[in-house]
């Protein structure tokens, strides 16, 4: 009965969502912002440095930094110090060679082939012993909070959903009862409990000794967001046609925030939605303790406001553009000059006065995003679709251009930055490989028929992936400590090149036995048997 109630509530909520989306697309933007009378009080309550700065000081500092970067980039190109950007004074054009030879991440390192295969159920039990993620599954009724679910049933539900078997089929190929699984899922498996369980694993992985080896940038933690397409078995409001990925069928996109190989947040969106509308949502609503400072996406993660929005909230946006030359030429012009520092200039100067004049309205918009007055992704979608003929949105676009211009100059002048962006995105692709393997255990298609089910199944798959990554990271951490004790620097350097994204030593299929067994893993003993190739 409980699961029927949840499904009925979800159907009502979906109809409400459709109404909400339609309202946002036709109602004035002002209807979705905080009241002006509340702005000052909310501004004081939010711990955002940008709400407390002097706009005149901010603009002057930003303008000086941008001018300085243009001078440095111009000089390095003119003097030949930048080997990747060549200026021809005869044609007054730039020849680009910014592609970075950064190979795709090596998954399934040979290190893991040295271990005996471990069943996915045993692996999840071991990870639960390390992280206690099972404790996050509480009953949906407050009066039943003290009731503990059966660990075996919880694991079976997670595995059945995450591998696309579903509860009925996982019951048929295991020693679990379908009725018990259905009751357990209805009572304990919800999006919030699954996210809390995922957070528990992510936080524990981040505390392992090996985690420091995965840091890309010394200035901050560098993460990435990317979407992965999955076909749906059943029609739903979320499923959309995308001939490029699904042919004549429908599907969804699972967007995931990955930091140092760890999938710290995820969200299901329609396959035809623009990924850039959900970037801030994934970042700002990341409830784990693993927080990125720098975020990379591909071209689909960029829009005309994301640089400004992320900068305001303290993030550095670092996308990888597919056609970088086009973005540079829209922002800058190249003109020969006797002064080596004046090769690159803005095609259209930044309107600093407009930013200053509309700063209060920009702050109001940002506070509205931070306060969840409406869905953040829907509000950003509204901003991007709204006609940019109001002074506030023009000012926001100018703010965005000022931040974006600095990033473009950094990108052409800093090979290290380009490599870091690629490495971050490659780690996201490595996670996608693992996520696809988990999905292909039974057909690679989502079975959910509405948004709540799709989200549930996606979070279950993320939890399985999180368990695999934590298990591997635990082994690598023992290897790190063992070689530190021995003083073996060559092996420690080799460890830095080994990704915890590996599954060749993990058995994801077969007949699943959830009978309680002793699952005492001696990671130290496992590490002593490993041979590392330096």
UniProtKB/TrEMBL annotation:
<protein>
    <submittedName>
        <fullName>Transposase</fullName>
    </submittedName>
</protein>
<dbReference type="InterPro" id="IPR002513">
    <property type="entry name" value="Tn3_Tnp_DDE_dom"/>
</dbReference>
<dbReference type="Pfam" id="PF01526">
    <property type="entry name" value="DDE_Tnp_Tn3"/>
</dbReference>
<dbReference type="GO" id="GO:0006313">
    <property type="term" value="P:DNA transposition"/>
</dbReference>
<feature type="domain" description="Tn3 transposase DDE">
    <location>
        <begin position="122"/>
        <end position="512"/>
    </location>
</feature>
<dbReference type="GO" id="GO:0004803">
    <property type="term" value="F:transposase activity"/>
</dbReference>
């Amino acid at each position: 009965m409980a699961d029927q109630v949840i499904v009925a509530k979800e159907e009502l909520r979906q109809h409400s969502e459709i109404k909400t989306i339609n309202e946002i697309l036709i109602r004035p933007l002002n209807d979705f912002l905080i009241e002006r009378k509340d702005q000052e009080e909310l501004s004081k309550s939010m711990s955002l440095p940008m709400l407390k700065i002097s706009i005149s000081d901010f603009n002057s500092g930003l303008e000086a930094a941008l001018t300085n970067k243009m001078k440095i980039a111009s000089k390095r190109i003119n003097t030949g110090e930048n080997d990747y950007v060549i200026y021809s004074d005869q044609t007054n054009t730039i020849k680009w060679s910014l592609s970075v030879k950064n190979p795709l991440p090596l998954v399934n390192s040979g290190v893991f082939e040295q271990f005996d295969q471990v069943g996915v159920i045993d692996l999840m039990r071991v990870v639960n012993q390390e992280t206690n993620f099972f404790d996050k599954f509480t009953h949906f009724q407050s009066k039943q909070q003290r009731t503990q679910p059966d660990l075996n049933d919880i694991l079976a539900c997670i595995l059945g959903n995450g591998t696309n078997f579903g509860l009925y089929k996982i019951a048929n190929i295991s020693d679990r009862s379908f009725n018990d699984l259905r009751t357990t899922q209805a009572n304990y498996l919800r999006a919030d409990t699954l996210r809390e369980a995922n957070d528990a694993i992510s936080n524990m992985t981040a505390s392992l000794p090996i985690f420091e080896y995965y840091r890309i940038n010394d200035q901050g933690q560098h993460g990435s967001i990317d979407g992965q397409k999955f076909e749906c078995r059943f029609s739903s409001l979320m499923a959309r046609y995308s001939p490029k990925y699904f042919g004549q069928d429908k599907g969804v996109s699972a967007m995931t925030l990955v930091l140092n190989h760890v999938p710290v947040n995820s969200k299901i969106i329609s396959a035809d939605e623009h990924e850039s509308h959900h970037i801030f949502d994934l970042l700002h609503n990341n409830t784990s303790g693993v927080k990125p400072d720098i975020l990379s996406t591909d071209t689909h993660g960029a829009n005309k406001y994301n640089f400004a929005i992320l900068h305001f909230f303290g993030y550095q946006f670092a996308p990888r553009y597919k056609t970088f030359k086009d973005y540079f030429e829209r922002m800058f012009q190249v003109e020969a000059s006797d002064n080596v520092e004046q090769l690159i200039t803005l095609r259209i100067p930044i309107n600093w006065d407009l930013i200053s004049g509309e700063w209060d309205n920009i702050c109001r918009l940002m506070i509205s995003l931070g306060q969840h007055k409406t869905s953040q992704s829907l509000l950003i979608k509204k901003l991007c679709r709204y006609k940019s003929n109001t002074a506030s949105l023009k000012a926001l676009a100018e703010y965005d251009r000022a931040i974006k211009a600095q990033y473009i100059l950094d990108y052409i002048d800093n090979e290290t930055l380009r490599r870091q962006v690629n490495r971050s995105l490659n780690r996201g692709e490595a996670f996608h490989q693992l996520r696809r393997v988990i999905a292909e255990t039974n057909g690679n298609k989502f079975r959910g028929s509405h948004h709540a089910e799709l989200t549930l199944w996606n979070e279950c798959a993320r939890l399985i992936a999180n368990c695999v990554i934590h298990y591997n990271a635990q082994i690598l951490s023992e290897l790190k400590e063992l070689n530190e004790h021995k003083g073996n620097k060559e092996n420690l350097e080799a460890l830095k090149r080994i990704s915890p994204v590996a599954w060749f030593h993990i058995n994801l299929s077969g007949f699943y036995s959830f009978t309680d067994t002793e699952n005492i893993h001696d990671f130290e003993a496992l590490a002593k048997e490993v041979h590392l190739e330096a």
